[in-house]
């Protein structure tokens, strides 16, 4: 079966045709490392990880790049406001210098990678930092200058969108000119022109160039690093939907204007995770981190399960109740697998076909999870086949289903005694006493399930 993805560029679902047979290059817009990632940002990476895993499952050799923006991302998409990294330096009381920038980037890149690991997101092949690719970024601006697409203003070099036929291919453009024509010190030629090289306001921040001390524009960074590491065109570019109108339209504009070929063939965008009807954004403080979930006792992978319950192109509203429900379901799958003690087993080809059809249909994770549940409830299939098949699907789901963190490792002597007493009461058909003992066991944080194999103890959460 062929694999299909919704392509924002063509606005339709298309069969995925790689540039090189059995290989796929993915560029995922990564974080600006001035603050912690929130669970909305992390949705973006669980989505691109699911994409990567789906391709790998189908036999593709994947090369994935997740960039780290460590300079040049201004607070407003309209090329105004502070650089987000400078904002971070000020907040943390770090020196406004390149060394300070590095310290800030190191701190938040590390925390970002820890979040990825907790969510079982496979490590990308590279996490390039914008400041490590300055020669490529500068070369791209020079190329645009040579071809007549760039012009100077007192605060930097700008891209002339009026010169490019078909600017804004991805769509999503805000009404022309809305608050975007003016820059701090000059007038843009067209409202949607954007900065390629921003001159530094501070003598300690920035890098030398023929235009003066400054730093690359945020869009230039992604255009230059993706071309350098994946080639141009490459297969798939991903990011959140907020990147469509400005960041990605601008990446396409400058890369195509400079080099005359498309930047990427497929553009995939995840919808937003919202919090009580408003979007979650680092800049307005309306955020929840993965750490906050853990503090409330949730497993990060229960959050991954929660995300998989929605299609990546549907807006999802986060609530603690919904997360709790997702964790209960997640835990049930793990327990069902842990209860199957026989080893061996074969992958059920019928279920595998159904699962693949769901996931290869534009990553339909809710349907893929429905297949998992159908499989768990199948009484005709040998349990060991159920286990083996689900664990095979887990190569895509990434839920670590073979590891039951809810399982009980050590039980106190007191609880052991209560279980024995309860079993004795049950043998004597003293149901009242057995119930009383069950409640005692629950007070200790466990519950007993009576199976054909005898009492099974589980942890209460
Ligand atoms: P940033 O660090 O702000 O550049 O964002 C990193 C990634 O998270 C980008 O792909 C954004 O499009 C995405 N993103 C930001 N906020 C959300 C959200 N609330 N829900 C889903 N994705 C988001
Ligand atoms: Zn980007």
How would you sum up this structure, described in words?
With 461 residues, the chain is an alpha/beta fold. The protein has three domains: 4-270, Rossmann fold (3-Layer(aba) Sandwich), CATH 3.40.50; 278-397, Isoleucyl-tRNA Synthetase, Domain 1, CATH 1.10.730.10; 413-459. It contains 14 helices and 19 strands. Adenosine monophosphate binds at residues 29, 31-32, 40-41, 43-44, 239-240, 242-243, 270, 272-273, 279-282.
Strand order of the largest sheet: 4-3-13-14
Architecture of the largest domain in CATH? Answer: 3-Layer(aba) Sandwich
Strand percentage = 15-25%
What's the story with the biggest beta sheet?
4 strands, parallel
Specify the CATH homologous superfamily of the largest domain.
HUPs
Mean pLDDT: 91
Structural class: alpha/beta
Oligomer: single chain
